[in-house]
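Hello,

Our lab assistant flagged a job as stuck in the queue for most of the afternoon. It eventually completed. Since we weren't sure the result was trustworthy after the delay, we are filing this so someone can double-check. Below is the sequence as submitted and the structure that was eventually returned. Let us know if re-running is recommended.
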Amino acid sequence: MNKCALALAMVSAVSAVSSCAGTAAAQYRLRADAFYTASDTTSGFVMLTSEARYPSWLYAEAVMWLGTGDYHGDVMVASVRAREPHGYGEVRAGRMLVATGALRPVHLDGVDATARAPWGTSIEVFGGSPVAPQYEPRDYDWAVGGRMAQKLSTYGTVGLSYLQMRKDGEVSYEELGVDALATPFRWLDAAFAGTVDLQSLGLGDARLSLASRFGGVRLELFAVQRSPSHLLPANSLFSALGDVPSQRAGAALLWRAAPRLDVLGEGAAESLGGELGVHALLRATLRLDDRGESALGIEGRREDIPFAGAVGSSASPTESWTGVRGTARVPMNRFLSAAAEVEVVVPDDARGRGRVWPWGLLALRFKPEPRWEMAGAVEASSSPTALSSVSGLVRVSYVWGKP
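-- returned structure --
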């Protein structure tokens, strides 16, 4: 089936779920977002989000974008979920994002089913065809996996998960995941999540943490292994320069210095491409209201990692740098709110790419009434890969449905 046709069918199905109830007990919602971006090339697209619940055990959702210019529309999510009223099980079918246990997220067209027993055992299985770019054949592409977990009284949970993906009928990726959470005392908790690539028998992505709370202080010891397949796209300079495949071990201290003031300090030793370095940050966040809708923040960060030729080329951004970041989120009145972020990075060795790398974002949001929302943002930066870059985004949204 054509993807646009599938999306329209799912949006119609969502509406049908709500209309089949025939009463006010059915809850439905349809949202349309129109985006326009301006950078080196301008483009725009419309995104539709639809969801319905009848009355509590059946739920449907669909998210699609209608394309722009030479690019055809596509479906992001289009699924129906049925849930047993007592929580003993649920089934999802359609296009969905499956993220369970320690496994990497998988975007697929298929089925995801979960069963839960009263004694704390749960079993989840999923399978289907991985989502691929439009017109790319996937007749022999599929993914299967699952997770088995056991709740250990009130002291924690342990889970074992598995994922296999095939391309043209051949195994392209296979991993085994383990996750565990333990809370032996009220003031102490421990967590672990990790995966093993069964093809290379190497550690994929893993995190181990041990945290203790006393008074207004939380102390955490952690060790992290990050792999490329589990990293998300980066937006700011801080995330672009800091979130790279690495191994890190250290400690973090979160202090509730005042009812609305949080101070976070973190220090760690880090290995990147076989080179050993140091990561450190200090961040303060001041909430200007009880709900935190208005807040100010400032952060300083130091990444001290010698250049590693194994990580990138001579233009690799994985060298030592120092940066400062400021954020502000302020409602100006009941209809208008503003947010701003500014970052400045100073590399130890600029190598002709500028002594200072700035990045900034300014955004405004206008919501005159509950159904309408308009927002716009402008981003500007100078980085190791671009002498200057300016881009903008405008969004207009409208919501139909019952609250």
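-- support follow-up --
The delay was a queue issue, not a problem with the job. The result is valid. The two ends are 33 Å apart (CA to CA). The chain has a mean pLDDT of 83.
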